[in-house]
Please model this.
Amino acid sequence: MTEYSSLIYETIGPVARIWLNRPAQRNAQDTALLTELDQAMNLAQADEGVRVIILAAKGAHFSAGHDLKSAENDGQGYSVEERYAFEKKYYFDTAMRFWDSPKPTIAAVQGACVAAGFMLANMCDLVVVADDAFFSDPVVNLFGAVAVEVLVHPQVLGMRKAKDLLFTGRRMGAQEALDCGMASRLVPVAELESATLELANQIAKAPPFALKLVKRSLHRTLDLQGFRAGLDAHFDSHQLGHVSNEFAEKTRAGLTGVLAKKPGA
Model:
């Protein structure tokens, strides 16, 4: 078995389960974790015995988003071109690996699922949420930036709900996530692991080539409606937001300084 420092990778019959494993940091995503996540997806997709992939997280929270300390150091002194290349590789492309996976993917979400955590979970085909889960993308309000790198919000929330969450930066609870169709299933937190594995095993019984083709058809339908073009366009807008006066003013004390100024942070 491949050893990781920020992940745990395991196979349970026809299911590969990838655990984010930085619980002390609320599974904040640094470049080391994202690099390993890409490697783990390669492993799962290359394994002919794996039919379904689960993305889960150790500890009380799914993911607090980007590791701001790491992002602050990584982005220090970057030119526009360098930041674009960095965020395309680590943020955009890693998220799209889940969207484009030929094998069905399921996110198992508990606790905080914030910003890049929201983005990553929602690139999975299905999202099983624990009753203590909450979701938010506070990037516009906190940083003066243009949401996260992959703007999947309108597709998973609906346009009105997406505007509500992005304009206000508020939290959305598990029941609301289920009611608007973002979450596939809602379970007690104590049952999240078993319920997600049960769902994965149920899906794994279907013929794998048929699953691959039906997922491909569903995603082509979205692409014909402009989904992928919209993601590409938003990524460019996200980069433009990094050089705005508002972003500079909000982050004058650094990315971590923004949270230090937030009431209750």
Observations:
- The beta strands are 7-12, 15-20, 52-57, 105-109, 112-114, 126-130, 134-136, 172-173, 185-187.
- The mean pLDDT is 94.
